[in-house]
């Protein structure tokens, strides 16, 4: 096998890269500005370490690939699993998958088609991954490749983080990105989407051609925002993002179905139904002031109560099959309309 040092230009879907002795660790928040993201027990930072949507993109003529890393954790947020999946895709299609057990340190892909090809190697959404090197069959090349695809940033909760997906290229944001030929940055943070202004500032700093904000469920569960503060927070988030992206299409997506609090108020007297009404009102207010390229979508059109009943045992988180349905629906309801605005 031929060893290839990890060129930082291969990484996509991250906000920052942490260099260690012989390894590189992608983060979905700026790791050198951790102090800007406080949360109880550093929950937001622990989710930002997990590599949902992060991948390596490169041109290669290899028929065998091996990704070497530090041993994977033997636990994950929300519980352990027998193996963590790594996917290799070409032109949006999954070529191969490699299961890596907890404490494992390499993902292997064999039987790849001959000749030069551009591939993406997707990292698991559930855990942090510190990468060491790529290896190929002897004599094969690994090179950075230009990427002119439109850049899409999506912000959300565990429903966007997608730790229950069948594999990393099958989280719903990856399904949509692969289908539409988009450069994805997934800012889905399990339990930690509280319409944070600092996340809005990060989005404003990042290159973007499309932005989607799927907001609400964590605020209901934790009671962090109310009828007074939730609409103001969503409005302010859009305004913060607009500082960096004055003309980029932004999609506001209200919560998907959530039976426990559809109509039953939470600890601050707020419901999911109230949140859906608030998203519509925020959109009306901003467009009434001249805001352009701002879209509004009903989360029930992405994943309704019937689907929750069939695919979410906990009445909240769709399983792997449900995540794929969510990807199909998001693509049809949200992305198709927003790409029209880009002339795509």
Which value, in Å, is the CA radius of gyration?
A: 20 Å
Overall shape: it is: globular
Multimeric status of the protein: single chain
What is the count of β-strands?
17
**Low-confidence residue ranges:** none
For the largest beta-sheet, the strand count, sense and barrel status come to: 6 strands, antiparallel
Count the helices. How many? 9
Written description of the protein model:
The chain has 344 residues and is an alpha+beta fold. Helix content is 28%, strand content 25%. It has 9 helices and 17 strands. It has helices at 43-49, 158-161, 172-180, 197-205, 217-222, 229-244, 272-288, 305-311, 320-341; strands at residues 2-5, 11-12, 16-20, 23-27, 55-60, 65-69, 84-90, 93-100, 106-109, 117-122, 131-136, 142-143, 151-156, 183-188, 210-214, 250-253, 294-297. The strands form 4 sheets. Strands 2, 5, 7, 8, 10 and 12 form a 6-stranded antiparallel β-sheet that branches. A 5-stranded parallel β-sheet has the order 14-13-15-16-17, with helices on both faces. A hairpin with a 2-residue loop joins strand 7 and strand 8 (93-100). Helix 6 packs across helix 7. It is globular, with a radius of gyration of 20 Å. The protein starts with a strand and ends with a helix. The model has no long low-confidence stretch (mean pLDDT 96).
């Amino acid at each position: 096998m031929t060893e290839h040092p990890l060129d930082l230009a291969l990484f996509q879907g991250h906000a920052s890269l942490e260099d260690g002795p012989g390894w590189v660790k992608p983060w979905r928040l700026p790791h050198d500005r951790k102090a800007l993201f406080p949360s109880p027990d550093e929950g937001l930072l622990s989710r930002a370490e997990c590599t949902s949507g992060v991948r390596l993109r490169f041109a290669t003529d290899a028929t065998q690939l091996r990704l070497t890393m530090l041993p994977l954790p033997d636990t994950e947020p929300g519980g352990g699993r027998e193996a963590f999946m790594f996917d290799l895709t070409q032109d949006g299609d999954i070529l191969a998958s490699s299961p890596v057990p907890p404490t494992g340190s390499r993902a292997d892909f064999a039987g790849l088609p001959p000749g030069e090809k551009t591939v993406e190697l997707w990292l698991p959404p559930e855990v942090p991954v510190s990468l060491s090197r790529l290896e190929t069959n002897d004599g094969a090349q690994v090179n950075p490749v230009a990427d002119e695809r439109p850049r899409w940033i999506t912000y959300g909760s565990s429903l966007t983080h997608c730790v229950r997906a069948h594999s990393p290229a099958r989280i719903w944001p990856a399904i949509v990105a692969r289908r539409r030929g988009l450069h994805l940055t997934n800012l889905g943070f399990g339990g930690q989407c509280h319409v944070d202004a600092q996340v809005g500032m990060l989005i404003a700093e990042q290159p973007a051609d499309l932005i989607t904000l799927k907001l609400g469920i964590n605020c209901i569960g934790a009671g962090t925002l109310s009828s007074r503060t939730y609409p103001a927070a969503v409005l302010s988030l859009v305004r913060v993002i607009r500082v960096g992206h004055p003309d980029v299409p932004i999609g506001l997506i209200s919560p998907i179905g959530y039976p426990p609090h559809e109509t039953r108020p939470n600890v601050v007297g707020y419901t999911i139904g109230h949140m859906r009404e608030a998203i519509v009102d925020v959109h009306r207010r901003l467009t009434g002031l001249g805001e352009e390229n701002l879209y509004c979508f009903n989360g029930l059109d992405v994943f309704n109560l019937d689907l929750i009943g069939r695919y979410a045992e906990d009445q909240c988180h769709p399983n792997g099959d449900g995540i794929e349905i969510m990807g199909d629906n998001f693509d049809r309801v949200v992305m198709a309309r927003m790409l029209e605005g880009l002339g795509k």
